[in-house]
Each structure stands twice: as C-alpha cells, then as structure tokens.
Amino acid sequence: MKKIKHSTLRCDRLRELCSIENLTYYKSQLDVETRWNSTYYMIVKFQKMLRPIEMLAATDQDIKKFVPDAQGWIKINDTLTLLEPLEKATVLLSASSYPTISDVRFLFLGIQQHLNDYIGKEGFSQSEVASLILQKIDQYWEVVDSSTLASIVLDPRTKLTLFSTGEESTNAINAVKRRFSEYHTPMSQPAVINHDNGEVASTRDYFHQLKRRRLNNSTLNITRPSSGIYEEIDQYLALPCDDNVAPLLWWQAHF
C-alpha cells in the first residue's frame, strides 16, 4: 500500500479503475505498528479494491510483485478473522458514553476465548499470531483481573455473570465483602466514666469522656452490627441484572 499511497499518479490511476468497476475508492491506509486496528482497516480496504488493484498491477510491475498469491490470501483472510473482534471491541468502547471496567472485562473474556479457539486449530495459518496476541492480552489481563473484581460485581449490568460458577464467583463476592469491611465502622460501646475507688477523674478527663460518649452516640443510627454488614450485598445480588442502565444511576435509585 505504501507504493500506491506515496505516488500521486498511482492513486489517480487506482481511482479511475475503481470508477470503471463501479467501486468506491478508498484512500490507502498505512499499517501502524502501535495500532492493531490500522492493520485490520488496511486489509479490509485492500479487499474491497482488489479488482482495481489487480488491474493496476497488470501494467505496473512494482505493484504486481506485492499482490498476494493464493497462499498469501489465505494468511490475509485468517489475519482478518483474528483481528475482527479486536476492532469491534475498540469501536464499542470508543462509542460508549459511559464505559466501565466491567465492559473491559466482558470484552477481554470474549477476545481471549476467540484467540484460544484459533490457537492450534488445524488448517488455520495464523495460529502463531493468535498465540502472540493472546500473550500480550494476558499481560494486561493480570492487572485487570486482580484489581477490578469488586467493581465488576457492583456493576448492575453484569454482577456475577462474567465469573464462572464456583470458586471464581466466590472469590469475586469475597472481594466485595473485603471492600465493605474496609469502609464499615463497627459499633463502639459507650464510654464509661471511670470512678476509681470513689475518686473522680480530673475535670478535664471527665469532659473528655463525656465527649467520647456523645460522639459514639451520634454514630449509633448510621452503624450496624457486624453480622449484618453483608445484607446489602445479598439483597443486591438477589436482584436481576439490568443491561440497559447506567451503573451510577442504578445505585442512586436503589440504595
């Protein structure tokens, strides 16, 4: 594609050939190493203009030697098969007005499954490419998986649906409970004014103890027994998932 993109004459000729074939002319796109989607879009455009490109190659030897043979097209089509879900995931997240970490996990799981399906698949020419992509995805996944369990469970659109039944779901619930425990303030016992052998504490200490009693009493209505701190989690998980809601708005309306 560089040979065409960097030549005004070739671009003009390709545009003419597309017009002759009643095909849309697509501006050549270079493959950018740091953008996986650029590879996908480059190949898609190449496919759509294949006939005009072959016509151009028939009269241009520099182009002809870069036109893929039958085996090359098998590899190209298999590459598209691998990259299509990654392109869809990028578009989905970019178009979302409110992407969440559960969206990322949902897409990661789908991409991982897709790549695993093609690693070692008989007759698939790009199994090694699938393995290399999966290795890179797995590096990111280690970070996402370990640090986002609670956030994903607390997304009312997914809850536990992104976790397998059993140990994985249990670990996710426990992650939420641990986070609840971090923010939970245990109910304190009211401070007692000490009178040691009839001897009254100093006046200042006496009023410090009264202050502690007042502060403890003021929290009684907003704290709850330790045995009940997980009731909200159980109530939340008992409700059905809601795919068509913004998570923050859902929590605002329900709790």
From TrEMBL:
hAT-like transposase RNase-H fold domain segment(s): 94-164
UniProt keyword annotation of Nucleus present: yes
InterPro entries, sorted: hAT-like_transposase_RNase-H, RNaseH-like_sf, ZnF_BED_domain_contain
Top-level taxon of the source organism: Eukaryota
Pfam families according to UniProt: hAT-like_RNase-H
Keywords: DNA-binding, Metal-binding, Nucleus, Zinc, Zinc-finger
Entry protein name: hAT-like transposase RNase-H fold domain-containing protein
